[in-house]
Amino acid sequence: MADKTKVTEQYYAPPPDLGKWESFRIFLYNSETGQVLGRTGSSWAKILLFYVIFYSILVGFFAGMLAIFYQTLDAKTPKWQMEGSLIGNNPGLGFRPMPDSATVESTLIYYKANDKGSVLRWAQVIDDFLDEYRKKGSGSGEATGAENRVPCSPTSAPVGEHQVCDVPVDDFNPCTSAKQYNFEEGGPCVFLKLNKIFNWTPRAYNTTEGLPDNMPEDLKQHIKLVSGKPEANTVWVSCEGENPADVENIGPIQYIPRRGFPNFYYPFTNKEGYLSPLVAVLFEKPRTGVLINIECKAWAKNIQYDRYERRGSVHFELMVDRS
Length: 323
Hints:
By secondary structure, this protein is of the alpha+beta class. It is built from 5 helices and 13 strands.
């Protein structure tokens, strides 16, 4: 009976005491078991196959989701527009020339009218900005879609399906490159542009009815002169000194080629070759040696003005020095 219940005793045999380098060598390759880095060939094959399948599924899933996502997008038409978009339906104004990137938070245009280098520096900034507007062909070095640009006027017929209205910046006399944008004369030109919002169409103040109380009187008189005419369909622009002292120092102002952005440039629908319309504001005789705070506003029935949020307006400072 004792023989039947006899249990073979087993004893634990400790592994051989190997040195560090010997243990490392065996870890790299164990000739007795055929293991490499602690795994046999079949074990490495299984784990490699697992990760190949796993990451292939992940890549396939991601590619599939990305393909589905791109099916919901249009290369030229934004998915969210107007009130549903982040930028909303209230365009703001921008100005050029802007100070260099080293003073990105500054909006000061300061130069010395009697310093050729100072004048040329600002003129070059405007040249760079207007370079896209001067490209007319479709050859090498020209802008894509530039051949689609055609002359427009308030009385011209609507443009074709693929056509866009040109902005003839070389006709903005004296705000032209040849005259260095009048900087040397001490009466600089500042270019204004309305920010692009897809499919936004302005509702113009084209008659004297319902004009805002805070609209400048000279602009009201201008609208009265063109009321009922095709050129009245315009997003109007006005520039003024922000404070009483600025109003005294700013001097007379001209708007070139017209006092606003004509409706025939809208809506923006991302056609190739489209250019944002521009207004060159010529400050004829600003007082020299004085910092002038200037605010320019865009006027349309569907442009809301807010000075603090810079809605429908833009602020910059101008200082012309002759010392």
